[in-house]
Amino acid sequence: MGYDLQDAYQQLANAPSQRRRLAFSVEDQIFVWLRGMFGVSTMAAIFGQLCDLTCAWLEHQWPSVLARHFADDHLIADTSQHQALTEQHVLSEVELLPLWMDHTPNQAIWLVAAVELLGFRWDLDALRVELTPHKRDKYLAKISHLLRQAPAGQAAFVYDYKEISSLIGSLVHTCAIFTARRSRLNALYAHRNRLHPKWRGHGLHLPRDVRRELKDWAHFLQTSDLSASFDLPVHTSSHIVYSDASNEGCGVVVDGQARFWPLAKQAHEAEVDIGVMEMWALHLALQTVVALGSRDSVVSFHVDNLGVVFAARKGRSRSKLTNHCLSDLALRAMAANIVMSIVYVASADNLADAPSRGDVSAFAPLKVNLAEPWVDILGSATPNED
After folding, report:
1. Which 3 state secondary structure label does DSSP give 343?
2. pLDDT of 16-52, one tens digit each?
3. How much is the pTM?
4. Contacts of 301 (CB under 8 A, 6+ apart)
């Protein structure tokens, strides 16, 4: 077509009857896209499919190449041993496509072991991923913008749904790597729900819990080392793990061995919800398999509470106590490089049901010394059993 992407948008007819399809013919392959009413959604779809075409064409030209993209971020990997492919080779080939994008200096195509993609720097040799300084500064600037104070006597800082959503999106993006941070977004989500997308702005101060959450995120983003491992385990643990909770305490069963942890007196006085207790039981189960030597593996944990299943998958809950536990759970799993596979079972099939009520007579003793997850919150520890 002879236009870059921006010009191409202007050349597409607006009326559906004038141009219904956008097509590319590449050798013996024809790529066809049905088009809808012209707008942002259609533009995004055409753009994404153009990126698909680019990746398909590069893989067609060089069989040893793996080309992938996420939105406008492209990753080109040469799997051949000689690695003779250069960035200039790729760029010259991309420019031959019927519809191509301008190449800008800050949008390089990387063919090396360390790449920047989606705001992270990926070290393919060390299998480490790090938030780039640019993204770190960008996210900190957003937080500082929301935390700024209005001078005395002036109206409160005006912000809107879009600004809050933009910040949440940035922090959620960070959570893709630092999963333990997922539980630190509840106040922001709740505050966004008080706003409306169509309301331009509100002269409101940020609530105290939102400010506290933002300051916590700012402190985290100022950490000197914002990196994590993406060396995912390929080994599946042979441990058979069950956890459960009751009003009496928490029970864990691992490979026919069981243990009961009575809840602290403060837990009963505070009337802690059973869902929190179930999460504490899961926390004890993870500690147990780590104490038994599990590392670099996928471990299945059987629970009979769907709330625990969904909270563990999302990484956050409405309960502050559960969120505290989830955060520590994620950190411990990350430290041992364990992927937690949470499996739901009916209560009748949960082997930890009786141990959670203090009955471990049907099992061999499970001898581990663990830190009870409620100690930091409730300030009381129950005696460890040997």
Report:
1. strand
2. 454 445 556 666 666 655 445 555 566 666 677 777 8
3. 0.69
4. 241, 242, 243, 282, 285, 286, 340, 341, 342, 343
